[in-house]
């Protein structure tokens, strides 16, 4: 599924002596330094080179001594709301920083298994957000198109893996923070059942809902991390004794009823999810379920009393140094300080009703398939509208921890802007192993190649459908070639358009009009950058316009369309299936007419 380094293979090479942990650490540090010129804000703190190499050398010594090290020599990074002994924890708020004396148990278990920590990564402050833009250390962009968000709150941890610096990383996930950035950056993001992994030594977001999560290039790597971290922690009051529901495969997979998925205008996400459902149907029986209670439940997280729990660890800072908190984060937390106990109990009572609805759903399906995020936004967009757009991203993730579910975000393709799309496989508590097995089966169905890393600033591109005089070889095609447009492919529209030959246009041009009783019309797809596209749009004369054209494969692109006045006095040429066919028929008709005239003149 992903071309990144395999944790399983790397650890096996160190255990066998084929590679050394020190050489792996050196290469990791080189990659980190190289990527600093691209997104230095990935980090809040990197461990000193000598410390990293000393840790790696100790792993080599332990491996030679015959210790069982399932993660021998594997470098990893830690979201900076998780404690590493002797390294400051900031949770992306310098005024909140403190120096822990001990490792969080999840970090301690990874180090004991042979993994080598490299540093602490950036995050949405106090793990409050899903965009990766709410940090004084800087906003992070998707590794494949840095104009767009990396996703949060575990932004730095996702970027470090997707950029190839390390093969796995730790994040946290309360509302989707370990799944959203995985989806947007083409990674697997595993969020275990609450309490499966210890959360001691983690700065709380919502203590009753928090989970540590993992980002990886392969689901087998996430499963290996799970085997190391799954353990009851007597010192963590939220820890639970794991009881996996066996390895029974997912037999029945639930998908939302028609109309229950909100895409916020992102038609490419719509098509990518439809393709994911089709592929998933090769693994399990697919049936529609009602997810409306889950979506309603998800609103409790930020519109209900759980916002008060989110504010608890930061009450003193809010009182004494409110200006030290990111303005967006401060607004959210302050709203939680004055929630009365009555509202808290109302929320708990509502949650119980939603739990019953979820139980009924689990009696009919083994797992649920949803988009991880409905869409993606540019960094500039979420900075301009930080609340509403952030809330949209969590549409299909916010309810999962409230309802005690496990989830895996699985790469399921890329949009035309190179940003990743992920689907989430969700199951009831302790279905973790089953979900990862399903994710592995899905990943094997189709190899999805990642776009190249955005190292120089990716120029945003727009796909454009042309239907008439802009087709290759026709009179206005120069308007595309002069702007550097690249031919993508020929295709057809959905069967919901009619084509008209406009009256009096020079050169002759057609008008493509959306209708209920249409047909599929031949078009050519071109790609050009946003500036070139804008200049072309500015030159489109009425009654033509640029709108959104639906293609036969379910995707949508921009394209030439006709206003209603375009069909006044026009001929309906839909039956020809395209402008070229109409022109060919017109030439043939004209040739026959000329021949007939010559014959008539010859007889006279």
Structure write-up:
With 604 residues, this protein is an alpha+beta fold. The chain folds into 2 domains: 7-235 and 250-445, Amidase signature (AS) enzymes; 461-594, Gamma-glutamyl cyclotransferase-like (Hypothetical upf0131 protein ytfp), CATH 3.10.490.10. 35% of the residues lie in helices and 19% in strands. The chain contains 21 helices and 21 strands. The strands form 4 sheets. It has an 11-stranded mixed beta sheet, sandwiched between helices. β19 and β20 form a beta hairpin. α2 packs antiparallel against α3 (49-64), α7 packs antiparallel against α18 and α9 packs antiparallel against α14 (341-362). The longest helix is centred in the C-terminal third of the chain and has 25 residues, at 579-603. It starts with 6 loop residues before the first helix and ends with a helix.
Decide which structural class fits the backbone. Answer: alpha+beta
Average predicted confidence as pLDDT = 95
**How many DSSP E strands?**
21
- As a whole number of angstroms, the C-alpha radius of gyration is 28 Å
Q: What is the number of domains? A: 2
Number of helices: 21
In CATH, what is the homologous superfamily of the largest domain? Amidase signature (AS) domain
Instruction: Assign the CATH class of the largest domain.
Output: Alpha Beta
Shape: globular
Low-confidence stretches: none
Report the β-strand fraction as a percent range: 15-25%
What is the CATH-assigned architecture of the largest domain? Alpha-Beta Complex
The helicity comes to 25-40%
Strand order of the largest sheet: 1-3-2-6-8-7-12-13-11-9-10
The termini sit apart by 76 Å
């Amino acid at each position: 599924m992903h071309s990144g380094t395999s944790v399983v293979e790397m650890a096996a090479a160190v255990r066998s002596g084929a590679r050394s942990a020190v050489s792996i650490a050196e290469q990791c540090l080189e990659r980190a330094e190289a990527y600093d010129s691209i997104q230095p804000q990935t980090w809040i703190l990197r461990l000193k080179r000598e410390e990293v190499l000393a840790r790696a050398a100790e792993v080599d010594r332990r491996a030679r001594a015959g210790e069982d090290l399932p993660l021998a020599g594997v470098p990893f990074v830690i979201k900076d709301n998780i404690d590493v002994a002797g390294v400051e924890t900031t949770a992306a708020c310098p005024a909140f920083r403190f120096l822990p004396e001990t490792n969080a148990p999840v970090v301690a278990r990874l180090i004991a298994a042979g993994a080598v920590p490299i540093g602490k990564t950036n995050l949405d402050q106090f793990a409050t957000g899903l965009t990766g833009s709410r940090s004084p250390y800087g906003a992070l962009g998707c590794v494949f198109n840095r104009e767009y968000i990396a996703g949060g709150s575990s932004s730095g941890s996702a970027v470090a893996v997707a950029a190839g610096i390390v093969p796995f990383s730790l994040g946290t996930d309360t509302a989707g923070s370990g799944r959203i950035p995985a989806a947007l950056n083409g990674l697997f993001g595993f969020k275990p059942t609450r309490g499966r992994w210890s959360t001691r030594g983690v700065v709380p977001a919502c203590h009753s809902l928090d989970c540590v999560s993992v980002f990886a290039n392969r689901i087998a790597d996430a499963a290996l991390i799970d085997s190391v971290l799954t353990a009851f922690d007597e010192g963590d009051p939220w820890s639970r004794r794991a009881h996996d529901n066996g390895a029974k495969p997912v037999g029945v997979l639930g998908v939302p009823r028609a109309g229950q998925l909100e895409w916020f205008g992102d038609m490419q996400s719509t098509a990518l999810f439809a393709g994911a459902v089709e592929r998933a149907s090769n693994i399990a029986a697919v049936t529609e379920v009602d997810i409306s209670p889950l979506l309603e439940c998800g609103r409790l997280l930020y519109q209900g009393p759980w916002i008060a729990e989110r504010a608890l660890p930061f009450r003193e800072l809010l009182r004494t140094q409110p200006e030290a908190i990111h303005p967006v984060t401060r607004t959210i937390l302050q709203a939680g300080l004055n929630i009365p106990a009555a509202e808290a109990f109302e929320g708990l009572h509502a949650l119980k009703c939603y739990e019953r609805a979820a139980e009924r759903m689990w009696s009919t399906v083994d797992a649920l398939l949803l988009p991880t995020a409905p869409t993606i936004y540019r960094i500039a967009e979420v900075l301009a509208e930080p609340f509403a757009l952030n809330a949209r991203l969590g549409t299909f993730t916010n309810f999962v921890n409230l309802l005690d579910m496990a989830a895996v975000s699985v790469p399921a393709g890329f949009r035309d802007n190179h940003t990743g799309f992920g689907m989430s496989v969700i199951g009831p508590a302790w279905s973790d192993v089953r979900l990862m097995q399903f994710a592995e089966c899905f990943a094997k169905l189709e190899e999805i190649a990642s776009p190249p890393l955005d190292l120089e600033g990716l120029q945003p591109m727009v796909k454009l459908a042309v239907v008439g005089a802009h087709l290759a070889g026709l009179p206005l095609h120069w308007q595309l070639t002069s702007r550097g447009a690249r031919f993508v492919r020929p295709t057809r529209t959905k069967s919901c358009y009619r084509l008209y030959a406009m009256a009096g246009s020079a050169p002759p041009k057609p008008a493509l009009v959306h209708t209920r009783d249409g047909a599929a019309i031949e078009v050519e797809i071109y790609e050009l950058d946003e500036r070139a596209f804008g200049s072309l749009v500015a030159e489109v004369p009425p009654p033509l316009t640029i709108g959104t054209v639906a293609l036969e494969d379910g995707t949508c692109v921009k394209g030439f369309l006709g206003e209603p006045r375009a069909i006044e006095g026009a001929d309906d040429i839909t039956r020809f299936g395209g402008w070229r066919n109409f022109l060919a028929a017109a030439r043939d008709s004209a040739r026959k007419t000329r021949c007939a005239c010559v014959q008539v003149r010859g007889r006279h």
